[in-house]
Amino acid sequence: MPTAADTEAFGRELAAGLTAGDLVILDGPLGAGKTALTRGIGAGLGVVGRVSSPTFIIARQHKPGERSGADPVGMVHVDAYRLGTGPDALDELDALDLDTDLRRAVVVVEWGAGLVEQLAQRHLFVALRREPESDVRTVSWEWRDAAERR
After folding, report:
1. pLDDT digit string, tens, across residues 14-59
2. What is the separation of C-alpha 82 from the centre of its chain, rounded to a whole number of angstroms?
3. Do 22 and 41 form a contact (C-beta atoms < 8 A)?
4. Directed axis angle between helix 4-15 and helix 34-45, to 10°?
5. What is the distance between the alpha carbons of residues 141 and 119, in angstroms, rounded to a whole number?
6. pLDDT, tens digit (0-9, with 9 covering 90-100), for 78-133
């Protein structure tokens, strides 16, 4: 995926298979395309409003809009980068009440690996990488079940 537009297009494709209750965990370094992918997921879900990084507010809710060929679904976009570590992070995560959001929305969490997997029986893990020399983004993804957790 050489451009942010390609990353967003891939997000729209991923969204076609997502429904309320799905947890998506995005992993990758700064600049790898996590927010661009989330913009694409939001577009594919048809959510209302501009999708941008929630770094300073931690979580942003997007209401359902019109979705082509599927039931409308909202999206909660979380940036876990600013959460604390250890027990503090778990307390802050609990305060976000994401398990309640999962009942009615797709929850997309940037920087959530190792922190939010327990919110759902399964989650979509998406690893994004950016090659520094070529500026090309690569992505891999897989559905992971609770039974497979390490």
Report:
1. 999 999 999 999 999 988 999 999 999 999 999 998 888 877 677 8
2. 15
3. no
4. 40
5. 18
6. 988 877 666 666 677 677 767 777 788 999 999 889 888 888 999 999 999 987 77
Tell me if 64 sits within 8 A of 77, measured CB to CB. no
Token reading at 136: 């090309």
Tokens of 74: 């909202």
Angstrom distances, CA of residue 70 to CA of 38, 40, 41, 67, 76: 19, 16, 14, 6, 18
Domain boundaries, the chain: 4-148
Exposed/middle/buried for residue 72 (C-beta within 10 Å: 0-12, 13-18, 19+):
middle
Strand partners, 105: 74
The DSSP output letter for 4 is H
This prediction has a pTM of 0.88
Buried b (16+ CB within 10 A) or exposed e, 107-117: bbbbbbbebbb
Share the mean pLDDT of the chain: 85
Place of tokens 């979705």: 67
The CATH class of the 4-148 domain is alpha beta
